[in-house]
Structure of Ribonuclease Z:
Amino acid sequence: MRVTFLGTSGAVPTTQRAPSAVLVNREGERFLFDCGEGTQRQMMRFGTGFDVSHIFVTHLHGDHILGIPGLIQSLDFNDRTDPLAIHVPPRSRGAIEDLVHAGGHRPGYPVRIHEVSPGSVAYDAEDFLVRTVETEHRTRSMGYALVEDDRPGRFDREHAEELGVPVGPKFGRLHGGESVELDDGRVIDPDQVVGDPRPGRKLVYTGDTRPVEAVVEAAADADLLIHDATFADDEVERARQTGHSTAREAAEVAARAGAARLALTHLSSRYAGRWTELQREARGAFDGECFVASDGQTVDVPYPA
C-alpha cells in the first residue's frame, strides 16, 4: 500500500502546498481522500494517475472539495466509463451533486454519491473495508479508516513435508484454510501447518478535527495515522476555536492509539519555514515515527512485522 500526499496545506494554499488531498494505492486500486482545489494537477505532477475508484470526503469546506469539478470533467475528457463512488457525510449529497455538475457538465460515466454516517462502513471490499470515524470540526465531518482483514498465518513447509504432504497444490489448499487427505488416508488440518493469523494493515485519515476519542479508538495499532496538525502549541486556543488540532495534540492521539507512524498534515501557512517546530513538538509526545507531510511525498505502508 502506497500513500501519496497531494495536498498538505491548511485552508489557504501556498506556493509549496496545495489544499487537502491524499491518494492511497492499494494493490493497484486508487482511493482519494479529500479533493481540494488543484488536486488533478497534483495527480499529474506527481504521477499518481487519475484512475481513482472512490473519493472519500471528510467535510464540505472548500479546501477539501473544490477539486472535484475539475477532476470529474478531466476523467470524462479521458473517456472514463467505470463508475466513480463519492462518499460524503450525512446531508451533503446536494452540495456534491452541484460540484459534479458544475457549469452544466454531465459526466458520461456513472457518479454515485453515498451519504455515510460516522461510525459505519463506507466501502466493504473482499479483503478490506473503509470505515468512517467520528471527528469534531466546525461542521459535519468524519475521518476514514482503511482496515485490511487478517492474513493467513505463515505456512510451515518443513513440518508439512515431515507430515508427508506432497509438494504441490495441497500446500496452497492448506494455507488457504482447507484440510487435505493424503494417499494413506490421513487428514491434515490447516492448524497443523499454518500459524496464527497475521494482522493486515490499517491507515487512518482524520481530515480536520479536534483530538477526539473516536480517532484514538479507530487508530488503535494503526500502521499510519494521518492527522490534522494545523497549529503549533502557541496557537492551541485558536485550534480549539476553529476545530483543529495542534501537532502535539495529534501526537498525543497517536501515542494513545499505539500507532506506528504519524503524518502531520493540514498545516497552517504561518509556519512556512518552521515545519521542524511542529515536528519537534509532536515528537515530544509520540515515540513512534513522526513526520511533517509535504506535497508529493510518497510513503509505503508495509505489513506489520
